[in-house]
Each structure stands twice: as structure tokens, then as C-alpha cells.
Amino acid sequence: MKKIVTVFLSLLMLSSLVLSGCGKSDDTGSNKNSEGGSQSEKKVKIRIMGYNKEETRRSYLDYLKEKLPNVDIEFQFVDLKSFENMLRTQLAAGEGPDIFETSGSGAVYANAGYVEDLTDASFTSKYNDTGLMRYQSKVYTIPLQSWFEGIWYNKDIFEKYGLTPPKTWDEWMDIHDKLRQEGIKPQAMGAKSWEPMMKQSMGMLLNEFYSKPENKDFDTAFSDGTKAVSGQWNDAVTKWTETIQKGNITKDMLGVDYDQAQDEFATGKAAMWESGPWAAEALKQKNPNLNMGMFPIPGLTAGTGWLIGGPGSAFAVNKQSKHKDVAMQIMELTATQEAQQALIKDNFGSSFLKGVEVELPSEYADSAAAFKEGHVYAPWITWPFGAIAEDYGKALQEVLTGAKKVDEALQVLDNKAEQQRKSLKGN
């Protein structure tokens, strides 16, 4: 079943951010150089550095190269675990890429004076405000497509054993038990990375903490230091650890990486795997006959569940770029219908550009209600120091090994947040 989903799929409902498509597409402005200028001009080299693989940007890069024939666009992929250190080192040396990928508002780089202020740029107004993350009331980044993650499941395996996508946490735990009894690994997980457990615990938090009206402003309070996660998140995260106690997430998964987990799911060795649309093509390449769908992470009571996601990564312009004018042309071109559709083609999501419509593929039919109700959120992307989600994820890895308790893992997050607040204030 396919549905037309307007641009923003009502993302980030908890922050009262209702996203809707409006307005109409515009061209790339009056700058004639946006088409590459005279053929006699010498080619300018522009480096774009990102932590999403080039295959997820291929159509977009092809579009840029078509529109800017006199610009040599080099895309440099750097794995996320090395990305921050490499980028900061280059920027501190007065170098670095002309355009780089970042998350949220780019607060850390803006605070250090490394990025161009885009608040008054002509292309910024083409985006819906809900997709524009601000730091100290200024815009330093423009959003790419949104992102979301849910639980991919093998429809054929589910059908064979009479299983349906769960509506409650207990139903999901029961599915794990039934699959295990049939000799099938219930869930693949690349827990060598800090991300999967962090995100699945967030699923429980979205259902049991963030969905309560009294907690709708929690992330704002956490960001400014008036509230901590300790004493707030404990019950939900402790409940989530039940999946560890039941043996659904096991210590051996700490030695499994993303690609290995993906392969387990693609080949039918595991019935479920948490990931997003960016994995769909690779899964189909590994197994063209894979019949899969995605369901949201369920909560304790029956409901639509929650997907992890929201405004995805963004592009920022290096303030020290030697070709800032060309970098700004690329940002202008990115704010077009054509560029947005190219981004979505290789990495499905919604767009924050006004007037863009996205068709929801049938694989996501089980998640349609979550989209409709705005049940798509990722708390850390609203924090000015969102990178500390990694510290939380690593602390959960220690919860899995038994080296830390939930309370201690949450204290790690609070401690890191306080360090970052002081750093942003220059203390």
C-alpha cells in the first residue's frame, strides 16, 4: 500500500513542531553562476566531507555536477567514529572541507567560529522553520532529508510462524521468545557500535517518558541544565533492559558490526533488525527475494509506537573556505525540488524544503500510523551537544556487560552534558 506523505510527516510532535508542505518550488535564484558560469573558467575544486556514505548521496552529487560543470566536486566519506576528530583538527588548522556534514544546529562549530552564518542567506527561507536548527537565534546549517529508524522484519518468517508486528512491548518480547523456540535468531544487532542499544532504549523513552504532556519541554530544560536525565529516565531505561535480561540482546553482539548484522537479517538468519531506509537497497542487493517491512518500537500499552528520527544531518559552510562563493552556490542548489528529490532517492526520508511531496513505499505501511501521529523523534538532535549520545550509548554497552547499572549509565550522560554546557559557555 502506498500513500502520499506530505513533506514533513508531522515530525517532532513532542516539541510542538508540526511539519507540513507548503509554498512552491523556487529556482536557484538570480545568481547566474549557479549554472557553472562560462565554459572557459578554470575549474574550482570543492570538497564536501560527510559521514554518510557516497552511495547515499550519489544522485544528489550527480545533480550538482550537472548544474556546476566548471566545479570539481570531491566527496570525502569519513566514518562517524573518526569524523569529528578529523574535522576539528582540519578546521583548527584553518583548513578543512568547503562544506561539511553535521548534526542539528552545528552549535560546537558555530561556537568556535568555524561556520558561516546562513541566517540571512536567500536559500534559508525556502525551508520550513521546523527543519532549521538554531544556535543563539542564528542558522548555521541547512537540513538535508529527514531520517528515521524502526524495526525491519522478515515478513515471510513472521507469516510462517503466525506472527504480526507487535503493538505492545510484551508482544514484542513474546515474538522474540517464539522465534527463539523455532530455532531462529529473533534480532540481529551490530552492538559493536554504540548506536543500536542507545536508539532502542530511546524507543522505550519515547513511549513511556516523552509522550507524557508533562515532559514535552524536557529536552529544552536538559539543554540549559535545569533538568537532568537521572531521576527522569531511570524507570523507562530500566524497563528497556528487560530485553537484555531475556537474552534478546547478548554480549556476543558487542563483537558484531553493522555490516554483519545487516547480513544476518538479509540472509534470513535473523528475523528482525533495527535500521533505516538507507539500508533497504543493500538488503535487496544481498537478497533480492527479501520480503520485508518496518514497524515502530512499541510501548507498554497498545498504540502506534515510535520511530527514532527527525531532522537528519545538515550541511554547513566552512567560514575559512577559499571558495565560499561556490560553496554558497551549492547550498542554493540544494534548496531546490530537484536536489531534494535526488537526496530522497538514495536515502529515503522526507524533505524540509517547502512544497516537496514524498511517496511512502509499501515497506513502511506498518509505520504509516506513526508518521501520521508524528511519532518520530530523536531527543539528542535537539541538544546543542547532541554528540554526547555516543557517551550514553557506550555506557549502555557497559550495562550489557554488567560493568555498569542503569543509574550509572544515566549519570555518565548527565556528567558529559554538564561538561559540554561549560565548554559552550567558554568555562
UniProtKB/TrEMBL annotation:
Leader sequence segment: 1-20
Keyword Membrane: yes
Record Gene3D superfamilies: Periplasmic binding protein-like II (3.40.190.10)
Listed name of the protein: Extracellular solute-binding protein
InterPro entries (UniProt xref): Bact_solute-bd_prot1, SBP
Record keywords, A-Z: Cell membrane, Lipoprotein, Membrane, Palmitate, Signal
Species this chain originates from: Paenibacillus dendrobii
